Predict the 3D structure of the following.
Amino acid sequence: MVGLAAYGCYFPAARLTAAETERVWGSPIADLDSKPVAAADEDALTLAAAAAATIDGDAALGSMSLASTTLPYRRRVQIGVLARALRSGGDSLFTTEHTTSARAGTEALAVQLLAVRASGRSGMVVAADVASPTGDAHRAAVLGAGAVALLVAEDGAVATFEASAHHVAEDPGLDFVPAGESALQDVQVSGYTQEALGAAVRGAVEPLLHRLGRTPSDYRFLVLGTMPGRLLDAAARGCGFTREQSRPVWAFPSTGDLGAAGALTNLALALDTAEPGDRILLVGYGAGSGADALSFTAGESAGRGAVARALAGGRPVDALTYLRMTGRI
Amino acid sequence: MGAHVSVPMYRRTLAARVGLEGRRCYRCSAVSFPPRGACGQCRGRSLTPVRLSGVGTLQAWTYITAAGAPPEFAAQVRRDGGYHVGLVALQEGPRVAGQLVDVSDPEIGQPVRAVVRRLYEEEGVVRYGFKFAPHMGEQLPAEGV
Amino acid sequence: MGVAVVAAGQTRFGDHPTSGVKELFGAAVDDLLADAGTAVDLDRIDAAFVGSLSCGQGMQLGNFAPALLDDAGLPPVSALHVENACASGGFAVQQAVQAVASGQYRCVLAAGVEKMRDVSGDKGRYWLGISGDTEYERLAGLTFAGVFALIASRLLHDGAVTREDLARVSVKNHRHAALNPKAHLRRRLTVEDVLAAPVVAAPLGAFDCCPTSDGAACVLVTDSSIAAEFTDRPVEVAGWGSASDSLALHSRADFTRLDAARRAADAAYAMAGVGPDGLDVVEVHDCFTVAELVAYAELGLSSIAEAGARLRAGEFDLGGRLPVNTSGGLKAKGHPIGATGVGQIAELFGQLRGDIAQPERQVPGAEVGLAYNMGGSGASAVVTILRRAAD
């Protein structure tokens, strides 16, 4: 059965803590305990390379997909440096790059599941995002940095893939960057934001449950993105899931918003804690809007602690250092 | 001022810089890295590519202060300040210089491993390459100079 | 066939804001002509070798040596630009010596010139980096200070030298430069001053590093048989040698050694028929303090382990057993790249003739002197041994 054979994460060592945020800006950011901050010599591609490097072996990859909304270039093929770092590449590596929304992570995973099923060769998904130095300060405050890599194979010892369903709709004004600009914008109408998110998630989850003949209670975990807790709870509730199914697999408090890497990092957290046979429903959401729902069953050899291991050993930085590191001063 | 290392020149070294590809001598089996035209040990010119582990031991280090950094590293020091540079003896034998990341107090003899980072950006082109981070894995035997 | 140095000239090393390379070169030639102990007819020059890295924006790169000769009004003879980074000057001298030794020419000018202080700090750092291993050391963010700091780091770690030993090199060379009106940095320093200076590349601080200087130097090299036509006290070129090494430290068998210097010195000693014990005065390439300590070992003046103690005991001071860098060295006399190696020969020429104008700087009765000039971090090295000609 096609599924996940290995996974790993990487987070930059520097951390901005809630205590430091509160000391300098007067109040902490809701739900955020600490977030990784990328060094000046890190970007989405180096984070991706570091996550991919946690996956052992010179597995002969047939395909690789990269997901990120903060790649260093708007136009050019960029996955080549990853292929170089993994010593893959050449004529026979099929690659895709997914860059336009936080849904990019599940887009990449869906493509790799298809590619592996079609080719019989292993595929890798790497999702990475890094807080962009431009953009509005309120949004930037929750942006973290990190990457996750998943090895997709015909024999998914970590988790087997069951089925997926997808949804797309026209929801303008949410979380967008116009062509030629760099700052993230949003109409900032909270009711609208929440409704569009709920509708998209429901739009992907309900047909999937229907097709599999399941109800939300058949799942141990609902894996969503690294969105603020208020939105996470609303999205879960909207499709009949509970906080108990979504909050334990929500990395946001220790990572901040990881953008395109958010849902897959949360999936890594679910794989870290799942028992064999546990069902996991993964939902990737991108504002604008689209959603992918993918159903997995945990296998015998889930990694146990990959996220915690990658988060261990952080180095707190003060606010001034944080502002300098992120290029604001 | 023009580029310090041209883009085509940088590209020719990508296999080594990002893929850690060295060269093994047919005659004496010694590994050279960075790749050379002739074996660093016996000067034999028949060489074949070999992938290195990137794991090694720190043999010497310095800390380049912000004021002393070459101009192409100005953007890095503006954001992260000065940086450490080390000489690393790779476990396959050769030695190479590289920046040290995620270390505040390097120690000669400590194990390190290669990671891919941005070296600098010039002409709008990001130059990626290996740097060295502390290696938490098995201890390597200490090596002399 | 014997080869002699019959005249020498040098500008002050340091800031020359109103002079370019041509003016500096011309000033060194004027200084050579002004020496009362020599009588030089420049029209007798058969050939010229000019050492320079030619760093800087807008510099004449092509046909560098002909441009200088022409501007200075020298005869339009064969002229060649010699480049081996910071050893360019020493190699220019060696080319001149070999040209005379070969019998092709009888009177050859060796010169060196560098204009470094026209450029901004950033551009200066750019130019200084291009003689190291540009593909790997430079892309690791290393400067020359960084490369020598790696050597120092290992020597300190191994207990071969102490931080104070490094500082004492600087203190000694500044003390010598304070006596030399042609030196760039004439301020005396204490060990405490050196240790308290801002770090450039740990463990090296600002006072462990030589300055960037403007300057020029030239020497006239002739067949010994005609030397008397220029001066009654020629200095014989007794031996010379040169060698190369890997540019990058990481490619060397032992990265704390400067092996090219050792091989160049061995060749020069063998040719001259003298060893380290036969020397009376030495000029070494001390671009960074640690480089002078390593030079003692490569030239056979002291083991690395004993270098600190010997330095502390004053053995290498003016008045000591074997004065080293009586000019102030690169550290304090200054380091106008291409001029440095030629300036070393000019210093020895003065010392061996007993012509040093400042009595406290003159090594009394000096007969044999050695100059060691190095390119980059030791990828090229040239050693020249001079001997006062028998009366």
In short: The interface with chain B takes residues 13, 39-43, 45-46, 49-50, 53, 72, 81, 84-85, 87, 315, 324-327 of chain A (CB under 8 Å).
